[in-house]
């Protein structure tokens, strides 16, 4: 049809006009005629030939100036009709390839057109390829187009490619903007940069706004982005953009929060997200992340609730960087969140939050001072805090108050003084102790040594400040002198302050003079001035290391002081000599000496010559050996001597703490002698404690945790003891379970890494037969002994020490060789292993109920907890060389012992006492090694070098040192070194620790397969070994440890099914055919007593193994079907062997295991095996029939077990019956479904079975008509079914299924 004339005129006029407009510029009135004409085209009422119009406009766009091209393109959606969208899209996509400067308007228009998905995909791919060359200003529009063009099918692919193509340089701000960023942070985030820098910030913010919008409203995009990050394998491939995106999606999409948390946790555990990546993310994108600050704090709070140290560390960093990079409001929110953690009552959270606050105070003191009022509010929650947490809190508050003389902090100082004075004057004893801790901590900040500090405004300690400090300390002293406990705590806290080495010289000098004079007046007397008085025992100077004449020398006045204190308590009269002196409690002796020693040590750079007389001076005591007088003593005399021994032991322990690092051989020899005295006194103390189990010792640790300590005792506690005063009545009482002297410490197995009741009870049996009187464990009195410092273990380096004995003229009269003997070695190793357990292998964090006191796990480790786990690990690594020496010496001892006794380590020539001490030393060494290498801190990057050093020590024991060995080689060599000790293992405990130690090394290896087989072989050797006769006769292998070792063997062996078949098919029959008290010859650890442990582990591992086997599919190859069918045949055969053992071993625990794991095995059979039988029945008929026939007999026995449980009315057994019956019903239905699938439904029939017990006897509990079929009928039914299956090819299965139904139905009828 011919076009109207006016239409041609319009097109022609428009064309000529546009051609002219290409050369037209804005006139003097500021009017752009081309843009006016373009805007009029948007309002056309009717377009006759839209295709022609589109063609002309596209021609004009191709030749128009740039500024007009932009207008033409952006107007296209309003000019062209819907039918022309495809053509316009094609033209614009071509233009996009020719002119990249038009990318933004073209993509903006394409988003408004209805285009073919294929074309959109092509354009998106084109744009993706140009991401590396586009300007930052264009990036938001490009990303918007890409995200809006994503579909459900290609979302993951597009997002993954976008992550790769969106190079880091497009997300990191330009260099000039980074410079500005640093300036912004230093100026409180106030923008003072130029327009260009502000423009760059705006572009980045706009880019993330586009992404936020997309992930908020498009679930597909957010999920795809998370999956793309999750699927990135290595940490090196992750970018700061990944972490930023996870935080943004976490804040915008509440449905995916749990998913994102799980992804983050996995990435943190695997090491993909580390501190450097998080720091860079905040540094680059802090403006973007500031908007999602609440979500970041919520995520950090969630991470701090974790039990994984790496997760907790990441949460801590989130708090720290949020405070560092965000504005004042966000900083206030961070402090508020941390205060909430501190007041939560969870001990782990409190520790972590306090550490974060402490770091914030150190890094950004001025900003923290603005939030001091929030931190000060924590003072209301001191009651539930541990002493170490109280120290941290007061340290934080004191730093905020006194670190800088500033007007703003004067109110904090006033509040601190007010709170501390109020606590010190409190009549509630606990608050007084809190006040002592706070006052000493605050004094330490006020009197800090600032001589080397570069902090502005911090000069050396002025006289006025020194006066304030001394006044505060004198106030503490005066408020605490009425209570020996409070005084001792003050001395300990002051000593810890001096040990930190931060006290200014002026304050240290004042303290030194005061402490030295007071200690000498209170506790030291002349050797010749033997006290006289009405003492219950004759006073003698004992345990002196030098020969004193009658006119010189000093002694510690212990017995008279203790007697005076007891006399004062009883209201008696003091002697005239005592009345002239100020009464000093002997409780303060050890704490005061610690304070004196540390003060002298700091003043003289570690030299203790000024007080070395205290190392060898005697102590005024009495004869302590009980002898025959023990039974004739009164209770009061008995308690007096026990207290005297406790105080003497604590004095010697502090003396060893003080002088252990002295270098001279003379001093080392004396320290070793004091160790010997400690061991001797412990042996004597055990004899006294065995006769007075309700005795409460004098306190030795004065932290708040010991105030409410609950006695752990197995004996009745008398009412008199319960009603004692504040100090005595709250102390820990003893347990008479076992012994811990130089003779019997080796049997102290309950103090190992995981103590159990079975260990303790078994150890009681050991020593009741040998040393009846020594039935007390000093381990239960740990709270009443002074803590050994970590430096004491440098004594482990000692070999032979030559000690000179001088005459009166200081000439060498004789020489004596002193060596660390096994009892002293055991004493040190026991304490070291407890410290490693407490610091490096912390127990699982438990939330403590509000207003409830914490447990006693940390009692006796106060000084230890003032150091970090990393410091302790460093100290243990430095001790590895001497510990290896001792380990090898003990190994050689047992090797020689075995050789002398023809391979029997406990032969007739073995000395029992020496053997047990050496065995315990062996165990403690392995326990310490295990605790060190199991430390989770080795996975932190900053501790890699420490792990490397520790492994080098073990490797160098095998061969000469080679520099720069790879970690994998060090692990392999260390594994080989430790494995060599397997031949000399003296006890089952040691064997388990060796296995655990090797497993810890195995976990750190990247290629553990070969060593895994070695662990399985070693575990089998230990299971097949005859352990020492003393342990075997008393069944001394603890059940829980045997359970662990057997589980390790089955988990690491190549074939679990073969291993189970060997134990159940070989070891158990040997046990059945052996005498009553004998064991299996193949597995000597398998006895009638331990059978239930073997049975439980085998059933659990069998169920775990088959549950992990993937169900077969019809698509699998024939070979895979045959392999899986063979595997299930072996599993069912093992199950059959184990189930039939209940006919011989029918004890209640065995039947319980059978009911529990029998049901789980049947469930696994239903889920994993039945799908395999569905498509294997036709091709492998005979194999399937054999499998089901065997399994039928097993399930029938399970049915009998259900009847047995009901007859005996055992609730522990019957509670498993309903679930087991339900599972058996499901099995019948599932077998029927398999028959239907294979066209054999007619082979399925039903019958009834009689209820029988385990012995096969009929249970008379049902009507006669319900018992129409007996066992012979069932057998005949099976034969009929089998002949039918021969004809049809697949019928015999039915009889198996219906018999399961029969069992279930008859059981139901009998109910």
From TrEMBL:
It comes from Equus caballus (Horse). Residues 1288-1311 have a biased composition (Acidic residues). Belongs to the Fanconi anemia protein FANCD2 family. One of its GO terms (cellular component) is nucleus. Residues 179-198, 717-769, 1261-1311 are annotated as: Disordered. This is FA complementation group D2. The keyword Ubl conjugation applies. InterPro entries: FANCD2. Keywords: Isopeptide bond, Nucleus, Ubl conjugation. It comes from the Eukaryota.
């Amino acid at each position: 049809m011919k076009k109207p004339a006016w239409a041609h005129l319009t097109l022609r006029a428009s064309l000529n006009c546009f051609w002219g407009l290409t050369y037209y510029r804005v006139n003097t009135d500021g009017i752009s005629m081309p843009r006016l004409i373009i805007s009029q085209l948007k309002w056309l009422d009717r377009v006759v030939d839209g295709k022609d119009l589109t063609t002309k406009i596209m021609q004009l766009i191709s030749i128009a100036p740039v500024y007009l091209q932009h207008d033409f393109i952006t107007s296209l959606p309003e000019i062209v009709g819907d039918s022309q969208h495809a053509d316009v899209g094609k033209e614009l996509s071509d233009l996009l390839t020719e002119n990249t400067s038009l990318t933004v308007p073209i993509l903006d228009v394409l988003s408004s057109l209805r285009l073919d998905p294929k074309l959109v995909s092509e354009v998106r791919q084109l744009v993706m390829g140009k991401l590396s060359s586009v300007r930052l200003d264009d990036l938001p529009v490009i990303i918007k187009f890409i995200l809006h063009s994503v579909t459900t099918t290609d979302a993951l692919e597009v997002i993954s490619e976008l992550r790769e193509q969106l190079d880091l340089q497009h997300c990191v701000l330009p260099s000039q903007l980074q410079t500005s960023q640093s300036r912004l942070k230093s100026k409180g985030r106030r923008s003072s940069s130029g327009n260009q820098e502000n423009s760059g910030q705006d572009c980045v913010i706009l880019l993330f706004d586009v992404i936020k919008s997309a992930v908020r409203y498009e679930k597909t995009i957010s999920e795809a982005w998370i999956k793309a990050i999750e699927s990135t394998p290595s940490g090196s491939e992750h970018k700061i953009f990944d972490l930023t995106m996870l935080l943004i999606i976490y804040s915008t999409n509440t449905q995916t929060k749990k998913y994102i948390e799980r992804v983050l946790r996995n990435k943190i555990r695997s090491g993909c997200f580390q501190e450097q990546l998080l720091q860079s993310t905040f540094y680059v994108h802090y403006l973007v992340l500031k908007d999602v600050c609440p979500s970041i704090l919520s995520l950090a709070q969630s991470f701090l609730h974790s039990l994984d140290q790496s997760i907790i560390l990441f949460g801590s960093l989130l708090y720290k960087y949020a405070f560092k990079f965000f504005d004042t409001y966000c900083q206030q929110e961070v402090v508020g969140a941390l205060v909430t953690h501190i007041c939560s009552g969870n001990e782990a959270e409190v520790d972590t939050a306090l550490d974060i606050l402490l770091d914030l105070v150190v890094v950004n003191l001025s900003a923290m001072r603005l939030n001091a009022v929030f931190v000060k509010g924590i003072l209301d929650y001191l009651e539930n805090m541990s002493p170490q947490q109280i120290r941290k809190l007061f340290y934080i508050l004191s730093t905020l108050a006194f670190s800088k003389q500033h007007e703003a902090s004067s109110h904090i100082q006033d509040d601190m003084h007010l709170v501390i004075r109020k606590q010190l004057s409190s009549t509630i004893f606990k608050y007084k102790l809190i006040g002592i801790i706070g006052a000493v901590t605050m004094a330490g900040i006020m009197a800090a040594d600032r001589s080397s500090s570069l902090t502005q405004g911090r000069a050396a300690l002025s006289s006025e400040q020194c006066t304030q400090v001394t006044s505060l300390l004198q106030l503490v002293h005066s408020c605490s002198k009425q209570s020996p406990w409070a005084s001792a705590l003050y001395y300990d806290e002051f000593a810890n302050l001096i040990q930190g080495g931060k006290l200014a010289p002026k304050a240290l000098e004042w303290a030194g003079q005061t402490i030295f004079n007071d200690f000498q007046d209170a506790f030291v007397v002349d050797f010749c001035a033997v006290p006289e008085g009405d003492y219950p025992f004759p006073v003698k100077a004992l345990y002196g290391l030098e020969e004193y004449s009658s006119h010189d020398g000093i002694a510690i006045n212990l017995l008279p002081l203790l007697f005076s204190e007891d006399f004062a308590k009883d209201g008696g009269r003091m002697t005239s000599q005592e009345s002239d002196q100020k009464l000093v409690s002997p409780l303060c002796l050890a704490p005061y000496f610690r304070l004196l020693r540390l003060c002298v040590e700091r003043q003289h750079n570690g030299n203790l010559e000024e007080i070395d007389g205290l190392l060898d001076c005697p102590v005024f005591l009495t004869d302590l050996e009980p002898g025959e007088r023990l039974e004739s003593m009164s209770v009061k005399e008995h308690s007096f001597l026990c207290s005297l021994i406790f105080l003497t032991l604590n004095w010697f322990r502090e003396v060893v703490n003080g002088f252990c690092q002295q270098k001279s051989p003379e001093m080392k020899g004396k320290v070793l002698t004091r160790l010997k005295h400690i061991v001797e006194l412990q042996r004597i103390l055990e004899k006294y404690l065995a006769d007075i189990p309700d005795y409460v010792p004098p306190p030795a640790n004065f932290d708040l945790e010991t105030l409410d300590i609950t006695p752990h005792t197995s004996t009745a506690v008398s009412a008199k003891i319960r009603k004692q005063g504040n100090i005595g009545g709250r102390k820990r009482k003893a347990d008479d379970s076992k012994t811990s002297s130089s003779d019997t410490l080796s049997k102290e197995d309950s103090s190992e890494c995981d103590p159990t009741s079975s260990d303790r009870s078994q150890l009681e049996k050991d020593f009741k037969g040998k040393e009846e009187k020594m039935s007390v464990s000093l381990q239960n009195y740990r709270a009443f002994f002074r803590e050994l410092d970590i430096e004491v273990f440098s004594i482990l380096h000692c070999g032979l020490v030559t000690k000179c004995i001088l005459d009166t003229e200081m000439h060498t009269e004789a020489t004596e060789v002193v060596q660390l003997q096994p009892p002293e070695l055991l004493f040190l190793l026991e304490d070291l292993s407890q410290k490693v357990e407490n610091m490096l292998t912390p127990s699982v964090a438990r939330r403590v109920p509000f207003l409830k006191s914490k447990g006693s796990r940390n009692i006796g480790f106060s000084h230890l907890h003032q150091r970090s786990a990393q410091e302790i690990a460093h100290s243990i690594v430095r001790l590895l060389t001497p510990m290896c020496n001792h380990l090898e010496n003990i190994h050689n001892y047992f090797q020689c012992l075995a050789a002398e006794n023809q391979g029997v380590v406990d032969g007739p020539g073995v000395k029992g006492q020496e053997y047990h001490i050496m065995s315990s030393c062996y165990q403690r060494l392995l326990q310490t090694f295990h605790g060190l290498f199991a430390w989770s801190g080795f996975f932190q990057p900053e501790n890699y070098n420490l792990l490397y050093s520790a492994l080098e020590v073990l490797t160098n024991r095998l061969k000469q040192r080679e520099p720069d060995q790879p970690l994998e080689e060090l692990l392999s060599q260390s594994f080989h070194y430790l494995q060599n000790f397997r031949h000399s293992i003296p006890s089952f405990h040691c064997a388990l620790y060796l296995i655990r130690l090797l497993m810890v090394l195995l976990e750190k290896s990247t290629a553990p397969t070969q060593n895994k087989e070695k662990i399985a072989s070693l575990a089998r050797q230990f299971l097949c070994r005859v352990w020492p006769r003393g342990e075997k006769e008393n069944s001394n292998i603890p059940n829980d440890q045997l359970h662990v070792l057997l589980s390790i063997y089955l988990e690491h062996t190549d074939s679990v099914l073969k291993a189970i078949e060997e134990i159940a098919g070989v070891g158990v029959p040997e046990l059945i055919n052996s005498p009553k008290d004998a064991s299996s010859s193949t597995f000597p650890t398998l006895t009638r007593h331990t059978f239930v442990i073997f049975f439980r582990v085998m059933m659990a591992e069998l169920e775990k193994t088959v549950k992990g086997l993937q169900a077969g599919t019809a698509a699998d190859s024939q070979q895979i079907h045959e392999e899986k069918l063979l595997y299930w045949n072996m599993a069912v055969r093992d199950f059959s062997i184990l189930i039939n053992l209940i006919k011989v071993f029918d004890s209640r625990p065995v039947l319980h295991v059978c009911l529990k794991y029998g049901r789980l095995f049947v469930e696994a059979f239903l889920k994993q095996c039945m799908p395999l039988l569905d498509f294997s029945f036709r091709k492998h008929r005979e194999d399937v029939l054999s499998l089901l026939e065997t399994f039928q007999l097993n399930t029938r026995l399970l049915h009998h077990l259900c009847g047995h449980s009901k007859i005996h009315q055992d609730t522990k057994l019957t509670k498993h019956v309903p679930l087991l019956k339900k599972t058996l019903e499901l099995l019948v239905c599932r077998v029927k479904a398999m028959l239907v699938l294979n066209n054999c439904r007619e082979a399925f029939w039903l019958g009834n079975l009689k209820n029988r017990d385990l012995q096969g006897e009929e249970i008379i509990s049902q009507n006669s008509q319900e018992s129409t079929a007996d066992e012979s009928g069932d057998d005949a039914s099976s034969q009929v079914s089998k002949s039918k299956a021969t004809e049809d090819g697949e019928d015999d299965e039915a009889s198996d299924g219906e018999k399961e139904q029969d069992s279930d139905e008859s059981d139901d009828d009998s109910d």
